[in-house]
Amino acid sequence: MSQRSAKDYREQLRAGRWFRGLPDALQDRLVGAGVVRAYGPEERIFSRGDPPSGLYAAIEGGVRIAATAEEGKEALLTLVEPPAWFGEIAVFDGLERTHDAIAEGEATVLQVPAAALAKILADEPRYWRDIALLMTHKLRLMFTVVEEAAVLPIAVRLARRLLSMAEGYGEWHERKSRVVAVRQDQLAAMLATSRQTANQVLKRLEARGIVRLTYGQIEIRDHAELRREAKVES
What we know:
This protein is 41% helix and 23% strand. By secondary structure, the chain is an alpha+beta fold. A hairpin with a 5-residue loop joins strand 3 and strand 4.
């Protein structure tokens, strides 16, 4: 268990667009109710089928959101990095968890337990809209991914995913990362393609000086050129 309290992470959480945009009073209540939890590599934060357990934010390390088939094969949906929030679906419907949340290496998360969150929302029903905005952002991303998978070639989809991850999927406030902490097999899984195909695309980008491949990471050396590869307007 981390020795730091939830309040110690407030400014870090404010680096995210969603939390930063919340009313100050709601920020206070979420942080005040938050519990800091530390996890070891591959430790489950929650699993598919688990009952609702509240809302979470990644504050150190990363979290893998995935689904595991009966034969043990994992389908990777996304990697959550600080200061992104996750676990909001069950807040709305009160049903079991839809996916697994697994620590990617050492990870620390802030949990707002279900009972505490329910109390906040019961006291101030207007805050439901703020929680809904978190989910609608994810829904927009999901529809974009589905559309891109149907109409775009893999090279463009890969470039777009790298850009999106470098910008925290639109969550980071006024910053972007030069290094994306993702393995090539994970990137391939998120794009529903083979590792070999993803590697070929990445090698072409590396040969042109757009990215640099290292173990477990991809460094973006030329954001502007990567945006052109992604066919995204500057």
